[in-house]
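Researcher: Structure for this, please.
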Amino acid sequence: MDYTIYYILGGLAIIYVLFSMKNRRNAKRRKSRGFMEGYERKDKKEDD
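Model: Predicted structure, token format:
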């Protein structure tokens, strides 16, 4: 019996798992960054 289709499907499954792990790690790193990190608010000028 020829198992070629199972080898192909198994390879695709492994690639999919690795790709999803990489994307999840990148999303977590992106989410952990503070919103507008490094932004310094300009002081308001007061008219006295």
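Researcher: Any notable elements?
Model: The radius of gyration is 24 Å. The chain has a mean pLDDT of 80.
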